[in-house]
Amino acid sequence: MLIFSASLNQITPFLWLLQVLAAFWLVQSFFALWKTKRARMLYANCAKQVQRDQSLNEPPRVALIIPAKGVSSQFGDFVEFILAQDYKNFHVIFVAESAADPAHVFLIERLKSPTLRPVQLLVAGKAEHSVQKIHNHLAAFRVLEPEDRIIAFADCDFCASSNWLSLLVEPLQRGQCDFTTAYRWFVPTNLNLPNRIASIIGTSIEPWMGPSWRICLWGGSMLMTREAFDSLDIPKNFEHSFNDDVRITRLARESGKRMRYVRSVAAISPIDFNWRSFFSFARRQYMHISEQRVLWYMGLLTPFIYLLSFGSCLALLVSGNLWMIAFIGLGLTSNILRTRIRLAYIRERFPNGDAKTLESVVRRSWWMDPIVNLIHFIVVVASACGPHVTWAGIRYRLLPRHRAEVVPSPGK
């Protein structure tokens, strides 16, 4: 039986709305539990399929394009991870802004030693009318060869297993899709609050990756057939673009191309944020996603509805509705169960213990949903405010139709 004071009974429609929202919070909690459990089940099925499948004959030639800027503490490990891929027929194209870029200098030294795969080093020059990453991609496109039947993209901020490329190529080689992508798991280098929040947001988004309508290709691990590359005229559509992966996602969706999230790929992306770098990174991600309005609105409404419904639970509890104690208890129980399933899922994905700090974050995350959703909502709103963004030390101004230009430094 619901318990209200006499004064509150006079505003029944308002109380009815609060009760509906409170019930929705509970539904949302159980739905998140179900999505996490289903993601774990789908991964287990994918892992079994990988074990059953045999290597395909005559692997198509892959051109792997990697824009590079600067040298992080993980850059050396990333280079070795790429060069150690077990795929039999690929070549690598590293592209830097200038020959003086630390990444280019590092690669020059590394390539003095023999490698199993052909590697090209390109200097793209400084971008003026697009973001530097896109400018680097365009330089790589100009050296593609007719024999390159699959075009692959990678970023320098993650590592995975030696079969990373093979797993992403296989669905394309079988003709099951036109694009494949993976998902990066944020693994913090320390357990400060910005790193915790980034990691929790990342692990909560991954279960939503699924059918083509809600996939957003990730440029850090993104492959396409040469036919898709040519038919969508990727070089022309990249001109003046603000981003690579979301632009390609939109083009693929509008043209009816098939996209697939390859769950069997586990990509680790180490993070070390403070509050400033976290908000800058997260805001930029949603500025990219804004080219796909449906995905952007999903990112906006999901935390907003959570905060509204959870706030309704608290308002009803304060007003004397003791049933909310049961509601909140059930919601916390759902969160604890989801945390346990998520922990098991991470351990299955990273059986060698490569994501221990992520496990530590998730283990203590069952009570953090209100904080995480509040910060998530602030980030999405901030992405709609202002046309300027800083990316890899370069400031850009966003233009209509998701184009971008470099903002000249003072004095230039």
What would you note in describing this structure?
The structure is a single chain. The protein is α/β, with parallel strands linked by helices and 412 residues long. It folds into 2 domains: 139 residues, no CATH class; 238 residues, Spore Coat Polysaccharide Biosynthesis Protein SpsA, Chain A, CATH 3.90.550.10. Helices cover 50% and strands 14% of the residues. The strands form 3 sheets. The chain has a 7-stranded mixed beta sheet, sandwiched between helices. The chain has a 3-stranded antiparallel beta sheet with strand order 10-11-12, with helices on one face. Helix 1 runs parallel beside helix 12. The protein is globular and about 70 Å long.
Entry keywords:
Spore Coat Polysaccharide Biosynthesis Protein SpsA, Chain A; alpha/beta; single chain; 12 strands; seven-stranded mixed beta sheet; 14% strand; globular
Q: Strand order of the main beta sheet, please? A: 3-2-1-4-7-5-8
Let me know the largest β-sheet: 7 strands, mixed
Briefly note the structural class of the backbone.
alpha/beta
CATH topology of the largest domain: Spore Coat Polysaccharide Biosynthesis Protein SpsA, Chain A
Question: Which class of the largest domain in CATH terms?
Answer: Alpha Beta
Query: Given the structure, what is the number of helices?
Result: 14
Question: Outline of this structure?
Answer:
This protein is 50% helix and 14% strand.
Topology:
Elements: H1 12-52, E1 62-67, H2 75-83, E2 90-96, H3 102-110, E3 119-123, H4 132-141, E4 150-154, H5 164-173, E5 179-181, E6 184-188, H6 193-205, E7 221-225, H7 226-231, H8 234-238, H9 245-254, E8 259-261, E9 267-271, H10 275-289, H11 293-318, H12 323-349, H13 356-363, H14 369-383, E10 388-391, E11 394-399, E12 403-406
Parallel strand pairs: 1-2, 1-4, 2-3, 5-8, 6-9
Antiparallel strand pairs: 4-7, 5-7, 10-11, 11-12
